[in-house]
Amino acid sequence: MDGNGLPIIGPSVDKTKIEPIHQKRLIAFINHFLTTTVSFLNTFSHSVETRLEKCEGQLQKMDAALCILEAKLNSIAGLEDVLVATPEEVTENPPEVTPPPPPPPPVTDVPSGASEPQTNNATPAQTKISQDPQYSRFFRMVAVGVPLQAVKQKMQVEGLDPEILDDPDAPAPTNTSLGGVSVTDEKPEDSDSSFSD
To answer: Region annotation Disordered: residue ranges (predicted)?
Structure first.
């Protein structure tokens, strides 16, 4: 017997000669096991239910935020024909983001022997990037409350540089490409005269 009065069972012990555990003691062990197990299961169940309630509340908030975002996007004119790529398409074929080309420097040099008055050969004043037709709808989306990261992701999906949104007062590029089609801010005759000597 050990200090608790339980028989020490080993390979050399004859189990037929060991006295059985007292019935009251056996019932006490079983009761203790059942109460501790039930207590653990109740605590675990309560913890899981609390976490599930929190997750459900967060999902409801997210659903409400998405409904508000969809309503805001639907209120913007001109976004009905915009195609949105699914996340699978974005991960399979990430668009290559190329920064817009830098604007050409204005021509300000005057030949030393020129007797004619100087004509305005400089390019016309640059429009702001926020007024550029290619980027203006993204600035409108930010202005009506669409999250900045969502607008930047949409620009990246369409192959545009999302960092443009950080500086709305930057000059618009004079020659940008949108889906392979060249878009210019100037009229053709103005662009020809700006490069002539």
So the answer is: 89-131, 159-197
Instruction: Judge whether 126 and 103 are in contact, CB under 8 Å.
Output: yes
- Identify whether 145 is part of a domain: yes
The size of the chain, in residues, is 197
pLDDT tens digits for range 126-159: 677 878 888 888 888 888 888 888 888 888 888 8
Q: How far apart are CA 95 and CA 156, in angstroms?
A: 7
Residue 46, SS3 per DSSP = helix
User: Domain containing 146: what range?
Assistant: 130-168
Candidates 149, 123, 127, 122; CA nearest to 138 is 149
Residue 99, in any domain of the structure: no
- From 188, 187, 134, 121, select the one nearest 161 (Cα to Cα): 134
pLDDT < 70 positions in the chain: 1-10, 80-82, 84-100, 104-126, 174-197
- Tokens for 183? 């878009």
Which amino acid type is present at position 41?
L
> Could you tell me if residue 175 is inside a domain?
no
**According to the model, what pLDDT value does residue 121 have?**
46
76 in a domain, yes or no? yes
The model carries a pTM of 0.31
Q: Which residues pair with 182 in a beta bridge?
A: 177
